[in-house]
Amino acid sequence: MFPEGLTFSFADAVNRGVDWLVTRYGDVFRTISDTLLQAIVWLEGLLRGTPWWALLLIVAALAAHATRRVLPTLLITGLLFLVGALGLWDKLMQTLALVLVATAIAVIIGIPLGILCARSARLRLVLMPLLDIMQTMPSFVYLIPVLMLFGLGKVPAIFATVIYAAPPLIRLTDLGIRQVDREVMEAVNAFGANRWQQLFGVQLPLALPSIMAGINQTTMMALSMVVIASMIGARGLGEEVLVGIQTLDVGKGLQAGLAIVILAVVIDRITQAYGRQRHEVER
């Protein structure tokens, strides 16, 4: 047995810090929560209110533009049609709204942080261990403070998803910018381009395939949080899986799980195709 005299705990300090945040900035968190909730409810209403055939046409158009091939486009559209045929269309739209909002927030946070990491070795030294913690710590652990700050529902599910899904985008943005050829940057400097011109005119366009790969990975990781998010009040396909687990309804859980896989495949194929397309143009 480990000696009790050598043990310590920081749990009380963490609890006091969270309590202080709730007491001091409760109104700020409530405002953030209300704003995000309005955004996701609006997007969810838009998706659910759009005719199913119109959404299929939009997805087919995106797939055709990304892949430029008929067979993948038909396959992607057919897979989404299958989800509707299984009676899970509304649940699919709820999940898609959650994933889109979480991915958008992750992109807004992740790309600027990746750019800053690429420009500052000190920031990278501090941030990379934090990203390791965010990815390896069980998601249930950071659900606890998120629940205390935002309560139950869609908003804490979004924040928990962002915490888990943002690190790949930060890493790949940082990597893509740092891998831009030095000779290219020297030539740009020789023409007198300032830092903003270098960033938006050269570095970001050349790093775009890596950034697109990061967005792809972030979206996939956001989808992997769907079932866990359903445990704290998020609706959608994850809720169907959870109900299947609770009632030992294997068929119900398998159908919802298949729908999640289909959504992941659709998003993965489209985002990967856009990334490859950009890479081929640059080559």
The averaged pLDDT comes out at: 84
CATH class: Mainly Alpha
User: End-to-end distance, in Å?
Assistant: 62 Å
The quaternary organization reads as: single chain
CATH architecture: Orthogonal Bundle
- Share of residues in helices: over 70%
What letter string, H or E per element, gives the SSE order? HHHHHHHHHHHH
Going by CATH, the homologous superfamily would be: MetI-like
Number of separate domains: 1
Secondary structural class: mainly alpha
Q: How large is the share of residues in beta strands? A: under 5%
Low-pLDDT residue spans:
none
Tertiary shape: globular
Number of helical regions: 12
* Rg result: 22 Å
Number of strands: 0
What characterizes the major β-sheet? Answer: none
CATH topology: MetI-like fold
Description:
The structure is a single chain. The chain has 283 residues and is mainly α. Helices cover 86% and strands 0% of the residues. The protein is built from twelve helices and no strands. It comes from Pseudomonas oryzihabitans. One of its GO terms (cellular component) is ATP-binding cassette (ABC) transporter complex. Keywords: Cell membrane, Membrane, Transmembrane, Transmembrane helix, Transport.
